[in-house]
Amino acid sequence: IGTQYNWTVDTTPPTITITPPVTPTNVDTPTLQGSVNETATVTVFFAATNTTVNATVSSLQWTMTTPPSALAAGSNRITVTATDKYGRSGEFKPFEVQASQLTIVE
Description:
By secondary structure, this protein is mainly beta. 4% of the residues lie in helices and 42% in strands.
């Protein structure tokens, strides 16, 4: 009789967290950051400009330091997605960054 092998199939996508931006600030291009629970590629989508930016990931911590353009006064919808090496994706559902949260000075 041949050798029997058992394995567990992991179908769980990565989870992602976001660290709230420090406020007040006069920076309209804030750094966004957070963490992932496993090695993953992290992208940040800006709905206002329909632009996706790759975040830098190191030791399960991600940082995005260059938005595609300055955030406008008012609401800015952002979606952060983590994709693991198997193509499974987890999203931090769209959240809005208000100008009041960042105190953007024009």
